[in-house]
Task: structure prediction
Amino acid sequence: MRVTAVLAAISCLTTCGLAEEAKVPLKTEIPEEVLAGTPPDVLAMLFPGLEKPLTELPTLLVPQGTVNLARGKKVTSSDPRPVIGELAFLTDGNRAGTEESYVELGPMAQWVQIDLGAPSKIYALYLWHFFREARSYHDVIIQVADDAEFSKNVRTVYNNDQDNSSGKGIGKDRPYIETNFGRLIDAKGATGRYVRLSSNGNTANDLNHYIEVEVFGKPAS
Result:
């Protein structure tokens, strides 16, 4: 009887879709370096608490069939009239880092929000703020929610706010130096329709910038 029960349980794991999904390395395109200002090593000396910049693409395994759900999706923001660029730049697929490819939001705390169009299981995000010069953005917080107002089922998948100055709790992630390698974030399968990314100025000025945001996942079943 026990052997029969174990075999039945294994069969259910497969037929019920509960068996672990096959995983593959997440892939994206890394833009060319276009450094025109402060280099990363100088910024690292000025701010020794910053995480060292990446020198190669990190590896993250995601379920097979994972795609960039954010491509071409609608973007809204706490600053509806950017100083430079357009909000649509965040999801247009252009990661070049040129002067024509980024959006600049107003000073201090601001956020951008992507509507994925439907509830989705999110495995990873890839984020490029600005890398024409080495900078570190303050209070970078990424959250996922079921509604546009971020009042239902809100989950934080990344937070490098070191002193709770944004009022969302002290983050466990470290501030980092921006480069053309961007930032890969493991979202661990968080489910939601909306993704909100917050920041609060940077080490160069009080403004906020985005080049591209990719949200990798699958439609929630």
User: Anything to note?
Assistant: The first strand starts at residue 23 and ends at 25.
